[in-house]
Design a protein that fits this description.
Shape: globular
Strand order of the largest sheet: 1-2-3-4-5-6-7-8
Strand content: 5-15%
Distance between the termini: 31 Å
Largest sheet: 8 strands, parallel, barrel
Helix content: 40-55%
Radius of gyration: 20 Å
Number of helices: 13
Number of strands: 8
Structural class: alpha/beta
């Protein structure tokens, strides 16, 4: 059985965001299924990204405070993901005071985790690793969070990242690993941005480069990319997830835009770590029984494989309309049938800001 490591969910996808109510509901689900933490890092929150220097509106700040208090009461750790991307150029070093101000504001939430997310940016910058290390050390010195995690600009071996964000600086990972405080974890998505299968040899090699065990950012079942947005990933995590825990510092799951449907896959990961005989195929039927009303259970047993493998691209307009009407009539308290119907009807549109898939 794999070593038990911190397991969590990071709301880090593009496109249609979850609601404050859904984020609140997630806490009890995480506690019940065996997760340890939640990271609030929605791409749609500009106060964490493009307008990170600006403060949240009074409404959003109250909502954030309420959310944080709820997670504390539920017993699930709470964190935020901040993306001060414009500080990563050489000129960014002159504006460290803005980072100090933001981290101090975030401290008012008393987060358990602070993540500095340097993904989704141009990376062909001289001394990129040194600059990001300096920013991470500055934030770590000021934050009240007990855990700091850095997401590098190049968080995978996937050549897609260099095609989109420019050539990776020479020895980027090695420099980051040797200069960054060992107490700061580093996110890694695997050999691909969206990795289907993890091998022990790959993760061992990454640990050597980063000089620490990687903190896995698992892009399953996320479906926010141009291709993946046409699919629903409902099946449990594959068997390899049960065999890699001793090589990781932690495991964070990036879920789908569909909040309720994400629960099917999410519920399986703690089971993979807890069982010496993890059987994903059998578990899927168990999770359908636990999380879905009977009428929806039967429909998803029939359609889940098609939604995952074929997706919207293989359905004719007539088939989509028929299935959408069918699922919209399966009124249930889980909210899953409505999400399937909306997905079939094209209401989860692809966000072109997502440059990787």
């Amino acid at each position: 059985m794999a070593k038990r490591i911190p397991l969590g969910v990071i709301e880090g996808f593009f496109g249609r965001s979850w609601s404050w109510q859904q984020r609140t509901e997630l806490a009890s689900f995480l506690r019940q299924t065996g997760y340890d933490y939640y990271l609030y890092a929605p791409k749609g929150d500009s106060r964490l990204r493009s307008q990170w220097r600006q403060d949240w509106s009074p409404h959003d700040w109250r909502a954030l405070n309420s959310l944080r208090q709820h997670y504390r009461a539920t017993g699930v750790k709470f964190g935020l993901g901040l993306s001060p991307l414009d500080l990563c150029g050489p000129q960014g070093r002159t504006d460290g005071a803005s980072l100090d101000t933001k981290v101090t504001r975030i401290n008012e939430l008393q987060p358990d985790i602070l993540a500095l997310l340097f993904d989704d940016m141009r990376g062909d910058t001289p001394q990129l690793a040194a600059i990001q290390t300096e920013l991470a050390h500055r934030a770590a010195a000021l934050t009240s969070a007990s855990k700091v995690i850095l997401c590098p600009t190049y968080y995978s071996d996937d050549p897609t990242l260099e095609k989109v964000f420019g050539a990776r600086p020479k020895d980027y990972w090695e420099t980051l690993g040797s200069s960054l405080d060992p107490a700061i974890d580093i996110f890694w998505t695997g050999p691909k941005v969206c990795t289907d299968h993890f091998t022990r040899s790959h993760l061992g090699d990454v640990a050597e480069r980063l000089q620490r065990r990687p903190f896995l950012w698992d892009n399953y079942p996320v479906n926010d990319g141009a291709i993946k947005s046409k699919h629903l990933y409902l099946k449990p995590f594959s068997r390899d997830r049960a065999d890699i825990g001793d090589l990781l510092a932690g495991h964070a799951v990036n879920p789908m835009n569909q909040f309720n449907l994400s629960k099917l896959a999410l519920a399986s990961l703690p089971r993979a770590y807890a069982s010496a005989n993890y059987q994903p195929a059998q578990l899927f039927n168990e999770l359908l029984e636990q999380l879905c009303p009977p009428v929806l259970r039967a429909a998803l047993q029939e359609d889940a494989a098609r939604f995952s493998a074929e997706g919207l691209g293989k359905l004719t307009p007539e088939q989509r309309a028929h299935l959408s009407e069918h699922y919209s009539q399966l009124a249930d308290d889980s909210g899953m049938s409505a999400e399937v119907a909306d997905w079939l009807a094209g209401k989860y549109t692809f966000d072109p800001a997502c440059l990787t898939d």
